[in-house]
Write a structure and sequence with these properties.
The complex is a heterotrimer. Chain A is mainly α. Helices cover 76% and strands 1% of the residues of chain A. The radius of gyration of chain A is 20 Å and the shape is globular. In chain B, strands 7, 8, 9, 10, 11, 12, 13 and 14 form an 8-stranded mixed sheet that branches. Chain B has a 6-stranded mixed sheet with strand order 2-3-1-4-5-6. The chains are: A mainly alpha, B alpha/beta, C mainly alpha.
């Protein structure tokens, strides 16, 4: 049994190393700068999806207002830069604004869970969108706010797309490591406890509300980080980024990839970004395709692409491996990577 | 339906056309064997799709007319759908410039899309021809690689205001337009000229772009003898309906999008008598326009409007510019210069040239919606010749004023 | 003075239209606990199908009211299919329901764009209702007044259905306590299909009735869905009275907010939803939060 586990871990480490190597060398083997930019987009949307997954996957709280948080951090960055602040000040302010807004979101929405939570976050997201859209004297409304230039940390100018890619990759790796540590920590375990057995957790003396509140803040931090990367990537922010469809889109990334897994949101982000950017150049009805893929996922792999693929793979290999215990072991370790 | 030309299918057609063309004119293609790559940013999904689809049709019509050859060079055409969002526009312009390596970009459609990418375009030194508003890109914040062969947001509103004050004898006007750059700039231009001619704008109303029901805004129209609307996309249709349903009868004047010829076939009686000013008019009786209208009707079974004509003309300017540059497109600065020096006579909008900011100087048509043989038509009443973006104002004085905006010029009480 | 009168009447009109859209949404939400994010698409599909029949795009021309019936039945049948073959497979799985309803709404929007193109379709006001009613100097379009009447008729019909029929009793039982309903032998699955089809049909009916004032255009679905959500949250899921009061309330806030507080129009629109969720999560007239 132990041998099985270590072998499994060994394979996993090897795969992880290969993936990392592929990501680091991506600008070298991609056919052009355009694909490097697509890579950057996948990375910061993946950070966004990872942030939402903290709530959706591990806390069992579905938010349909996260685009509002993503957008308010982007607006804060743009607004500070417009006022003449430097990049570091703008970024710090944006992080504070993003996390503080998440705190307000949490204070209001954590009074309920389930559909109540969905609806409160949706209302809050729509309020932020409505302000960005109509409070013209502050936000410029549909005209949006243009951001000029990108920061140059330690003299490494991010204006170059490859440099920006590496910055996004660094942030992405930090985010993934943070989430991985979070999930394996006692706090992560108690969060999943509040997801599966809130009453029992309460009876055991855990402060369910507080656990969820901290999870919200963590999610808000990742969301704010991705919002800042977004605004520096596009050099522009407008109300559409905060719209309900954007909240739905990132939720779709999480659900389609596999909520409650580390890899799922990343795969989901890649799927959506690739269809929106690359595939849309070849298929005029790409919106239809995207919708059809979501429906197909629900029918074929209802638990999401990543856990679904693992399950299908096990179905195929089960015929060859005769020890079902080993599979059960693998399955349980896959479920919480 | 013939209008859905997928990219791959079109590329195949391009190749076939090129083979045919090479057979006909074998010699000039030798020096420049590489195809000329033309990109289009348009909107084919979402609320702005109506204009966006016409934009693509305009380009395709011109390319077909020329057998996909600009001078001696084969044209490779890349069409990208921005989805009408600034973030999507950024992604797609990267696709065109970084992946497809286009020599020239046509589009985008909307001012907020243009604002999101103007710096990027200047950075990547690629000529861009757009019909989007955002005046300052050819005024106080000029982009050296930009051309606007259609009109600035206010360019059609200056003559419209002149006509409203002098010929319609309007004195007090309420303006209603979408609450974004294109609307702000249109209404600013109208107000400037209208008040200069002795009229007065008594109230400016700004519904958001997405407004399911216009009644809350129409209910505020009062104390006036005329209305100026500046709606775009499908909004003119819904605004005019609500306006008529409220029993209001003041004459309405509008710009190129509010009275777009492409809307004629879906108009109702509520449009009768509406005046519009547009840099293109369906009934312009020159050869180029007749050819263009016939081709659009044949290939796409639609009457072209401002968006289709705007892009047809833009493509024509690229073709002429490339000729002036000796068929060379590697030096983008020289290519932009050549395009800006283009002077054309035979275009669907009549004579056209560019000022030193790359903005068009051309004719503007005042039309009125009428009914003839059961069909709605825009009947041209008057043509203002050689109108520049500065109208009759001195360029220096004009540029020393702030750009037209939501608050400029202010409503005087 | 006219301004206030016109806006007041229009608030009720808009509220009436919202009621047609949201009452079905409320039933689906209250009974099946499905956050049906296709509801805006159903509204738009109804408007397109009905509008096409009025204009004659389908190869035949129908009178407005027959077109409304056709649109309602078509979309109701579509709703039944979606429920039978997709939502049926996902009981209680909210994440999957969100994914599948959003997926369908993407497909529906693109389908409409493919079939009807980007041009907005204007639907003519039905014969006899193109005129005006005058009160003093104020003018009210007859059709807008007719919408109020239609909404009241539909409200009464729905009330009779829910209160006086066996089907209605089953629906009410299902809304109050689905487990109990199942125990006493109500065939919940069949009930779900009927309610979903009814809700879809009502949304489509709202779409074609709204056609003459809103017209039909790509993006209409996204404009209407949040408004329907507002009504249901404020009024309370599964409550007919709640939908009615909520619709009128949202009609007023929408109209007066846009006219008087344009910069904060959406803020004042969504603030009541937030307040209700915080202070009375089951909605003004709901029994419990689903």
């Amino acid at each position: 049994m132990t041998a099985m586990l270590t072998a499994n871990n060994g394979t996993r480490l090897a795969v992880l190393g290969l993936a990392l190597l592929a990501l680091v060398t991506l600008p070298l083997w991609m056919p052009g700068i355009y694909y490097v930019n697509v890579g950057s987009q996948i990375l910061f949307y993946a950070v966004f999806a990872l942030g939402l997954n903290v709530l959706v996957g591990y806390a069992g709280l579905v938010s349909l207002g996260h685009a509002g948080l993503f957008g308010i951090s982007a607006y804060a960055t743009g607004y500070m830069l417009q006022l003449g602040a430097g990049h570091s000040v703008a970024i710090v302010v944006a992080l504070i604004v993003g996390v503080a807004s998440m705190a307000v979101f949490a204070l209001l929405s954590l009074r309920s869970s389930g559909i109540g939570f969905i609806m409160i976050t949706l209302a809050l997201g729509e309020i932020l969108w409505g302000l960005a859209y109509r409070w013209i004297s502050l936000t410029g409304g549909d005209n949006g706010i243009s951001v000029r230039g990108r920061p140059a940390p330690f003299g490494y100018s991010l204006t170059d797309p490859v440099h920006f890619y590496y910055a996004a990759l660094a942030v992405f790796i930090v985010a993934v490591v943070m989430v991985a540590i979070f999930v394996r920590s006692p706090f992560g375990a108690s969060l999943m406890g509040t997801r599966d057995q809130p009453r029992r957790m309460n009876a055991l003396g855990y402060h369910v509300w507080m656990i969820r509140f901290y999870a919200c803040l963590f999610s808000g931090l990742l969301t704010a980080v991705s919002g800042i990367l977004f605004v520096y990537y596009t050099n522009f922010i407008s109300p559409q980024t905060l719209a309900l469809t954007s909240s739905a889109e990132v939720l779709l990334m999480v659900i389609s990839g596999g909520p409650g897994t580390l890899l799922g949101p990343i795969v989901g982000a890649a799927l959506v970004v690739v269809i929106k950017t690359v595939v849309s150049g070849f298929i005029e009805r790409w919106n239809f395709l995207l919708g059809a893929i979501f429906v197909a996922i629900v029918i074929l792999v209802p638990e999401g692409i990543v856990p679904g693929t693992v399950r299908l793979w096990q179905l195929i290999t089960r015929k060859r491996v005769s020890a079902p215990a080993a599979n059960a072991e693998a399955a349980s370790s896959e479920a919480a990577p | 339906m013939s209008r859905k030309v997928t990219r791959r299918r079109f590329m195949a057609a391009t190749a076939a056309g090129a083979a045919l063309a090479t057979f006909k004119f074998p010699s000039p293609a030798i020096a420049q064997a590489a195809p000329f790559k033309l990109g289009l940013l348009t909107v084919k999904t979402g609320p702005l799709a109506q204009g966006g689809i016409q934009m693509e049709q305009g380009v395709l019509t011109y390319l077909k007319e020329k057998n996909n050859m600009f001078g001696g060079r084969k044209v490779e055409f890349f069409s990208a759908d921005t989805g009408g969002s600034p973030a999507g526009t950024k992604t797609k312009v990267q696709e065109l410039i970084e992946r497809d390596k286009v020599d020239t970009v046509l589009g985008p459609l909307a001012a907020f899309e243009l604002l999101a990418i103007t710096d990027y375009i200047a950075e990547h030194k690629t000529p861009m021809l757009s019909l989007a508003g955002a005046e300052d890109i050819t005024q106080r914040r000029p982009n050296p690689y930009f051309l606007r062969p259609s009109a600035t947001s206010a360019q059609a509103m200056h003559p419209m205001a002149d006509f409203a004050a002098k010929e319609l004898k309007l004195k007090r006007v309420v303006t209603v337009s979408e609450d974004f750059a294109f609307g702000h700039e249109q209404m600013g231009g109208f107000q400037e000229t209208f008040e200069g001619a002795g009229g007065k704008v008594v109230n400016k109303i700004w519904p958001p772009l997405v407004t399911p029901d216009y009644t809350p805004f129409v209910a505020q129209i009062a104390d006036c003898d005329g209305v100026c609307q500046g709606f775009a996309g499908s909004n003119p249709l819904r605004f005019m309906k609500t306006y008529a349903a409220a029993g209001l009868k003041f004459p309405v004047v509008t710009g190129e999008t509010g009275g777009d010829d492409a809307l004629l076939r879906i108009m109702g009686d509520e449009f009768l008598g509406m005046y519009s000013c547009c840099p293109y008019t369906l009934d312009l009786a020159n050869d180029s326009n007749k050819r263009f209208v016939a081709a659009m009707q044949k290939d796409f079974s639609v009457d072209p409007g401002f968006y289709a004509a705007g892009l047809y003309v833009a493509t024509q300017v690229v073709d002429e510019g490339l000729k002036l540059a000796g068929g060379k497109s590697d030096d983008h600065e020289a290519l932009t210069k050549a395009m800006r020096s283009v002077k054309l006579k035979d275009t669907p909008r009549g004579d056209l040239s560019f000022d030193h900011f790359g903005n068009v100087v051309g004719d503007f048509f005042i039309r009125r919606v009428e009914k003839a043989n059961g069909k709605y038509i825009n009947k041209t009443l008057k043509t203002y010749k050689n109108v520049s973006q500065f109208w009759t104002y001195d360029e220096k004085t004009f540029l020393s004023r702030p750009v037209y905006s939501r608050n400029y010029p202010p409503v005087k009480s | 003075m006219n301004f206030w009168l016109v806006l007041t009447v229009n608030s009720v009109t808009f509220g009436g239209l919202l009621f047609l859209l949201a009452s079905g949404f409320s039933l689906i939400f209250g009974l099946m606990r499905i956050p049906n994010l296709t509801h805006g698409s159903l509204f738009m599909l109804g408007a397109y199908v009905g509008g096409s029949a009025v204009v004659g795009l389908l190869g035949f021309k129908l009178n407005f009211w027959l077109a409304a019936v056709l649109a309602t039945l078509t979309v109701a049948a579509l709703g039944a299919l979606v429920e039978r073959f997709l939502l049926r497979q996902l009981p209680g799985d909210q994440l999957a329901q969100v994914l599948v309803t959003l997926g369908i709404s993407f497909m529906a929007a693109d389908f409409c764009l493919m079939v009807w193109g980007g041009d907005p379709m204007s639907v003519a006001t039905p014969d006899g209702l193109g005129g005006f009613a005058r009160v003093g100097t104020a003018v009210f379009p007859l059709y807008r007044l007719a919408i109020i009447a239609i909404a009241i008729v539909v409200a009464i019909a729905l009330w009779l259905l829910l209160d006086r029929t066996r089907l209605g009793a089953m629906i009410r039982a299902g809304v109050d306590d689905p487990d109990m309903a199942r125990v006493v032998g109500i065939r919940v699955s069949q009930l779900f299909t009927i309610v979903f089809a009814l809700g879809a049909g009502l949304a489509a009916f709202a779409g074609i009735i709204g056609g003459p004032i809103l017209s039909v255009y790509p993006g209409l679905d996204q404009d209407m869905l949040p408004l329907a959500l507002l009504v249901v949250i404020i009024g309370g899921a599964g409550s007919l009275l709640g939908s009615f009061v909520g619709s009128i309330l949202v009609g007023f806030i929408y109209n007066f907010g846009q006219a008087l507080l344009p910069e904060l129009a959406y803020f004042v629109l969504f603030l009541p939803m937030l307040l209700v969720l915080l202070l009375r999560p089951q909605g003004l007239f709901g029994r419990h939060m689903p």
